[in-house]
Hints:
This protein is an alpha+beta fold and 186 residues long. It is built from 3 helices and 15 strands. The strands form 4 sheets. It has a 6-stranded mixed sheet with strand order 4-7-10-11-12-13, with helices on both faces. Strands 6-5-9-8 form a 4-stranded mixed sheet, with helices on one face. The radius of gyration is 16 Å and the shape is globular.
Amino acid sequence: MKTLHSNPSKILTLEEFLQLEETNTPCELIHGELIMSPSPTFEHQTILSRLHVLFFHAAESTGGTACFSPFDLYIDERNVFQPDLMYLSPAKKSFITPRGIKGPPDIAVEILSPSNRHTDIRDKKEGYLRIGVSEYWIVDPSHKNIAVFTPATGEEMPFHVFAGNDEVTSPIFPTLKFRVDTVFPA
């Protein structure tokens, strides 16, 4: 399956993007280009479901919230992403609007797929870190690991890579703890 790119000669603004009809099809604005992706794979959805349950329960204990795609995160006038999963601490819940998140979540998570690998690793990582997302997680099903990037470490070096039976923890989300191997299907 391939990701569909709109006509690159037609650059959309945020205002034009917001005038599109509501859809459950993954649809993002990246550098002004409308990007539509096919439905995620069963493996992707299994990983997302497992992570969401972990995030949801840990967020409830903090008074924060966890939400999953499709739900827009407004980056700037030319970029609207739909992270697979986001965590917002109680202090950032005010960023939630009826149409999406307007402000950096504490954690943004993307699960790599063959069709989005390049975009998630390059364009989205840059966008998330630029707006001040505290942690950007890249979940890689092919290598069964989770790489965490922070604004302090930048785009080139992950803060930490969790793999195997490592326990995943986050200094900004201390109630979240799980083993990496529990989120990947056998």
